[in-house]
Amino acid sequence: MAAAGPEIERLIQLLAKLPGLGPRSARRAALHLLTRRGQLLEPLSEAMRIACERVEVCSTCANVDTQNPCSICRDGRRDPSTIVVVEDVSDLWALERSAAISARYHVLGGTLSALDGRGPEDLNLGTLAERARAPEVKEVILAVNATVEGQTTAHYVTDLLTDAEVKVTRLAHGVPVGGELDYLDDGTLAAAIRSRTTF
Amino acid sequence: MAAAGPEIERLIQLLAKLPGLGPRSARRAALHLLTRRGQLLEPLSEAMRIACERVEVCSTCANVDTQNPCSICRDGRRDPSTIVVVEDVSDLWALERSAAISARYHVLGGTLSALDGRGPEDLNLGTLAERARAPEVKEVILAVNATVEGQTTAHYVTDLLTDAEVKVTRLAHGVPVGGELDYLDDGTLAAAIRSRTTF
Predict the structure, then answer these.
(1) For B172, which DSSP code?
(2) Counting CB atoms within 10 angstroms of each CB, which of A139, B19, B83, B186 has the fewest?
(3) Mind listing the pLDDT tens digit for each residue in B64-91?
(4) Phi/psi at A22 (5° precision)
(5) Where is the RecR protein domain (chains A, B) (predicted)?
């Protein structure tokens, strides 16, 4: 496009690579940025520069943070006996938001997938068995997605941990809190019935 | 959120201000950036830094570009007799993409709106009458949106240009190319009938 210089075109192209933005919305976002220089473009540019400089992948759990080991791995108040295995950092963030558990994590960075050609060597599995063998670790919770890939990965991880003296658990399946039975799939309903508890 | 440092939180908050991204998708976008540092975060950070430094608002037409006057105002091959008045830079970009006209532009930066309290002083109207009075200018095309605010603004601009010796025109109303009559509103259909042309 001749109307905007190559610098603006490049900004649009890069913004279009963000999830949730297509070529059209990236153009809109670029314009939004360019017309709000002081309020948005400059602060965002600065925030990205800082992220570039400071964000690291934790060498223990593969969380992203501005320190390595990450603030979760450093946090002495967390229960050292439990490691929560998640697929992605977004899952770690979701669990932290829920404040459901105060443990340490292990981010796999994906799932096994024969279809997409992702094998064990593509996941952050190398240090997991070693971490699980540490004397203080008593439980590994497999907080992977309830998808075929997630479950395949869970089985693989379980096999990997057979010689570590830890209890391997998985998240409960059931009716989501606030969910209506009418809208749930059969698999979820069946799981909820199977795992019913005393009222 | 304790899981990510304040630097990452700030990045998420700023990304959430982009049109098309909410708090949830901004978190997803931030994570996408942080896990693709070399391919995306660094180039985007650099593109934004360059945009911050170089992008200016054209003092003639209010287009955004990396030079002032902008590349369109400088372009000697464009028809100097026509000024296309648009609401926003996005409209200018849309017209440039269509390659429908090779003229110069005048970006108003919005519309008059009694409801939102935007008066003539909030628009880039100061230099328009002066530009239209230049001897080479013969026509001003009002390429504003076909909304109430757009049309109000069009009328105001027409009044502003009464003493300039220019022809003031507006975009044609009618059936969009590729559009189906069945899905069009009555106003568009009536306009299309009124402005029918010989086949």
Answers:
(1) P
(2) B186
(3) 998 899 999 999 999 999 999 999 999 9
(4) -105, -175
(5) 58-79
CATH number at residue A147: 3.40.1360.10
- Are the beta carbons of A42 and B103 closer than 8 angstroms? no
Together in a domain, B96 and B48: no
CA distance B103 to A3: 12
Q: DSSP label at B26? A: H
Q: Backbone phi, then psi, for A187, in 5-degree steps?
A: -60, -45
- Cα–Cα distances (Å) from A45 to A40, A161, B15, B43, B104, in that order, read 8, 44, 10, 11, 31
Q: Can you tell me the mean pLDDT for B160-175?
A: 91
CA distance B61 to chain A (A): 12
CB A173 within 8 A of CB A144: no
CB contact under 8 A, B7 and A47: yes
Using the 8-state DSSP alphabet, how is residue B118 labeled? B
A133 domain residue, yes or no: yes
Domain that holds residue A154: 72-170
Q: What are B57's strand-pairing partners?
A: B64
Which chain A residues contact residue B64 at CB under 8 A?
4, 8, 31, 34-35
Confidence of residue B110 (pLDDT cuts 50, 70, 90): very high
CA–CA distances in Å: residue B179 to residues B174, B176, B184, B189, B190: 10, 5, 8, 11, 15
Domain count, chain B: 2
Bridge partner residues of A168 (DSSP)? A140
pLDDT tens per residue, range B112-126? 998 889 999 999 998
